[in-house]
Amino acid sequence: MIDLRSDTVTRPTSAMRRAIASAEVGDDVFGEDPTVRALEEETAAALGKEAAVYVPSGHMANQVALYVSTRSGEEVWAHEHHHLIGDEQGATAVLSRALPRLYSGAPVPDDGLLTAWMRGARQDDAHRAEPALLWLENTFTGQVVPLAEQRRVVAFAHGHGMRAHLDGARLWNAAAALEVSPAEVADGFDTVSVCFSKGLGAPVGSAMAGDAATVRRARRARKLLGAGMRQAGIVAAGALHALRHHRERLPEDHSRADLLADRLAEAPGLSARARTNMVLVRTPEGAADRLVELMSEHGVAALAIGPSLIRLVLHLDITDSDVDAAAGEITKAAAEL
Q1: Residue 137 in 3-state DSSP?
Q2: How sure is the predictor about 41, in pLDDT bands with cuts at 50, 70 and 90?
Q3: Which of 6, 90, 208, 238 is 20 to 30 Å from the Cα of 83, by its Cα?
């Protein structure tokens, strides 16, 4: 099976397994795990932030960031398709009791919408929730958000007393596509979350970065959520190896996504476009689920993300020959459809 469901399905490389096996460990709840400390310090440095905290998942990294940036009943402004909204089981309301205010369409809200929302919120009306946090995501379903757009929205948030968070689960891909440092993508945000298992190929973990005071509060939030880890260097070693060795290869995934999209132009009834390490495939109306079934029968695993939209994700385990084979099998499946 050629697994294109996600870049989270990768298996540790031999070098990563050696790093895990030889990891120096300690009790991280006491702050004594040297591998975790190294991972946190190097992540913070890469993102241009004062500190970072290692957590088991991107979901937790996001929720910790939300928890330390809002109070109960305050608003978080986010896109309706952000991971925070659609893929975290309503944790925004359950854990932080924050109120999402959602926009749709483009990956970042325009100034007119933001101004209208702020005008409505700033009337000293006791009936209205106060805006506290503006949320962005880069990449956004594989799409790179231009840094100028990020800066514009973050400046608006800070100018109106809000904090700004970047869900950078695939920030490493955005930086590679823009040919800038990760710190440039993270610049200006109060908090940033990054994932080591998406794109970079580590088995476990994400991090949240920000200023030292915010990260101290985030450590308490991590403990509150049950993620006080002991000899966590065992898993952090995989993430540290990925951070050190797998960022430079990300353009390979982007190139393979471009190649796969080009090859799928030959598939009957389909249209495809590449976005960093993803290929979004448009099917005939309502046919995405059925095509995913047919693709599986042909040895290609994928996810339908809409009635007529399929997502293919390139990653560490996919080779040029896999791309060639997948394109051929998807084309056969499309013909059957």
Answers
A1: strand
A2: very high
A3: 238
The secondary structure of the chain in percent helix, strand, coil, rounded to multiples of 5, reads: 45, 20, 35
CB under 8 Å to 336, separation ≥6 — which residues? 294
pLDDT in tens, 250-265: 999 999 999 999 999 9
User: Among the residues of 74-197, which ranges form H helices?
Assistant: 83-86, 91, 111-121, 147-159, 171-178, 182-186
Whole-number pLDDT of residue 266: 87
**Token digits of residue 61:** 């990294």
Residue 155 pLDDT more than 70?
A: yes
- Asked if the model's pLDDT at residue 123 lies above 70, the reply is no
DSSP string, 165-219: EEEETTHHHHHHHHTS-HHHHHTT-SEEEEESSSSS--SS-EEEEE-HHHHHHHH
Rg for the chain, CA atoms, rounded: 21
Q: What is the pLDDT of residues 262-280, one digit of tens each?
A: 999 989 999 999 999 999 9
Quick one: which H or E segment has residue 292? helix 288-297
Strands (E), the chain: 2-3, 51-55, 75-79, 99-103, 131-137, 163-168, 191-195, 206-210, 271-275, 278-282, 300-301, 303-306, 309-313
Contact 277, 255 (CB under 8 A): no
Between helix 233-245 and helix 14-21 the angle, nearest 10°, is: 140
